[in-house]
Each structure stands twice: as structure tokens, then as C-alpha cells.
């Protein structure tokens, strides 16, 4: 059934997506599995760090550097490699050989760097010049027990994981990753292992969408490739809705005889939009069914790619309490754009920074089905709807893509 669609602006569509209520679901996992996961609880120090007085250099621990004239002879009464301890009293003219990171004897007030000493024999050294610094990291110098290690809503990275591990933290509570099902539709689609057939195309979106989801922190629970069959689509769609947080479809959103998603969207619990004032991807559709968001993207690869970054990426990030990685800037168009547009046109582009300003270069064909520029695209630019060409150096709204 053909039903008139009422388009909304890109900004309005993004706002509707941003207003979708998302559940907060957490899980507790080992620190070793938490890279790029987002903390759902603030983590505090379970004890002071360091929890012993730690030598910052290789050298000799003595009581005080300013108690002597230099050079001065010391008797070496012990050796403390990293991981060992020395609990004997330390006399006035006694020294303990110590390694970087080792436990400093309790009586020692300074560690003299090895370079400032001379060996006299196996058990005696000369300290040639006094040490100006203690070279000792005191107990709790970095953290006291109860200090915040990493705040809630922080995305963990390898450095953060190392810090947690250094404090003995073994498990952390994080937001569960978004569960995403991908359904690609179209009887024209072929799997990658099929021979080339006239009138059919390989299912490039079947790898594009899942990898974009994974790259942006989601978990792909399933990827299906369906022929144009409404009963088959509805069965797969309902199963995916029941088992996932987000369902992404491609194709089936236009007004052809086999474009079934549009009818499904109109019967959903909440239709967010089914047409956007943009090219490519004007028929991008979003609706909520049983508390699951269904994002129906165009089947054309270029339009699918654009739609993912404008609408799905921010949603995946928000699910784990993070801001979009898209950086919105104003750039200058490095080449004139001659097409006139009834809708805003989103161009795939590259950018440079010249004299502190972003310059953007349209990146090859801007047809919705074009995919030759997807590998090299580093930003998206919005050419505003106009019946006039856009001049060289015109300012345009630009989204810098993540991971580029």
C-alpha cells in the first residue's frame, strides 16, 4: 500500500533518535576483558598506592644524605632486588644496594643513584656527591585508600586497565554492550561465495553494517540475508525484536512492490520517522516495537553508510552512556558543488586542516549506490538544499568520522 510520507529534517530525525528511552543494563566482567567497555560504577582504590616505600632508581639506600661530607665511605650491608625486602636496622655509615621499584628499608631516607657512587670493594662504596632528591615514592603518594581511580561513565583503555590491575582490581561493573541484529533484504542479493549472476549483486551491506556496529562498540547477534518475502521478513523481524536492543535492516524501505518495511513501521508501537529531507537515504525509517528500536536503512551502500553514521552510531554510543564520536565542525568546501538539491545532500568526503581551518573535498561519486569511496571517506558534509550551486570555499556543516 502506498501511503504519503511526510519528511522531517536531519536535525529533527537525530533528535527523535536521541529521545528514545534506552534501558540501563550492566554486567560485571574481568578487568582483562574490559578494554573499550564503559564503567557503570566509579572504581575506588582498595588500598594506598604504592603500599610500600618504593625506590625510583637503582642505587644505594642510606639514612640521610646531609649527615656527611663527600665523598664518603659506606659499608654495604644488604641487597634489595625488586620484590624483596630488608628489615634490619640501617646504621649511620651503612648502605643497602637497591633496585628500581624495590621496597626501601624503613630507616632509609634517601636512595643515592648508582651513578653517584664508586665501588671500593665487594662490601664498601664511596658516595661521591650528595643526593639532592630522595628518589623514594612514599606510601600513598599516588592514591590513598578510597581515592577515585576511574569515574563512572568512562570508557576504559589499556592504560586504565593497567591502573586498575596495579591496585588489585580484578572485576569491574560496566554497561552491557548493545545487542544488534542485522537483516539485509532483497532477492537480488548474493552471498560472497556464489558465482556472479546477471541481475544480481553481492551483499556488501551484509559486511558493512555488522562491522560498523562492532567498530562502534555493539555486539552483532545475528546477520540474515532474506529474499523479498513479507512473511519471511516479518518472522525474522519479530524474532530479532524479541532478542535484541536494536535491529538494523537494509532495503525494503522505499515504495516498491517488495518494500515491506514501510508497512511494518506504520503499524509499530511508535513510528519515529519514515522520510528525511536528505539525499541519499531519504527513506531511512525508524520505529520502536516492544521497546526495541528498528533502524531501517537504505539498501544502497552509500546511503546505508551515511545513515549509519548520522543515526545509528550516536544511538550505539548513548546505549553505553557515551557521546557520539562524530566531531561536528564547520569546514570550507575545497571544490564547488554544481548540483541543485530539493533536500540537503550528504556527501562522502575527505578533509585536511589548513591554517587552522578544515577544508573538505568531495570524495568521488555521491550516488546512493556508489561504494568506491567508502574506504577513503573521512568525513560527511552537508550541502544545504538550494536551487543554486554551492561556491568554492563555502562554509558547510561537517561530521568528522571516528577511527579515520
Topology:
Layout (H helix, E strand, L loop, with lengths): L9 H9 L7 E5 L12 E2 L9 E2 L3 E4 L9 E9 L13 E5 L11 E4 L3 E5 L2 E4 L8 E2 L10 E3 L7 H9 L4 E5 L3 E7 L3 E2 L10 E2 L2 H11 L3 E8 L3 H14 L2 E5 L10 H6 L3 E4 L4 E2 L5 E5 L2 E6 L3 H19 L7 E7 L10 E11 L2 E6 L16 E5 L11 E6 L4
Helix pairs in contact: 1-6, 3-6
Keywords: Magnesium, Metal-binding, Molybdenum, Molybdenum cofactor biosynthesis, Transferase
Function: Catalyzes the insertion of molybdate into adenylated molybdopterin with the concomitant release of AMP.
Protein name: Molybdopterin molybdenumtransferase
Would you write up a description of this structure?
Residues 181-318 form the MoaB/Mog domain. It catalyses: adenylyl-molybdopterin + molybdate = Mo-molybdopterin + AMP + H(+). Keywords: Magnesium, Metal-binding, Molybdenum, Molybdenum cofactor biosynthesis, Transferase. GO terms for molecular function: metal ion binding; molybdopterin molybdotransferase activity. Belongs to the MoeA family. By secondary structure, this protein is of the alpha/beta class. It folds into four domains: 10-25 and 177-319, MoaB/Mog-like domain (Molybdenum Cofactor Biosythetic Enzyme, Chain A), CATH 3.40.980.10; 26-49 and 148-175, Molybdopterin biosynthesis moea protein, domain 2; 54-137, Beta Complex (Molybdopterin biosynthesis moeA protein, domain 3); 327-400, Beta-clip (Beta Barrel), CATH 2.40.340. 17% of the residues lie in helices and 31% in strands. It contains six helices and 26 strands. The chain has helices at 10-18, 158-166, 205-215, 230-243, 261-266, 301-319; strands at residues 26-30, 43-44, 54-55, 59-62, 72-80, 94-98, 110-113, 117-121, 124-127, 136-137, 148-150, 171-175, 179-185, 189-190, 201-202, 219-226, 246-250, 270-273, 278-279, 285-289, 292-297, 327-333, 344-354, 357-362, 379-383, 395-400. It has a six-stranded mixed beta sheet, with no helix packed on it. Strand 20 and strand 21 (292-297) form a beta hairpin.
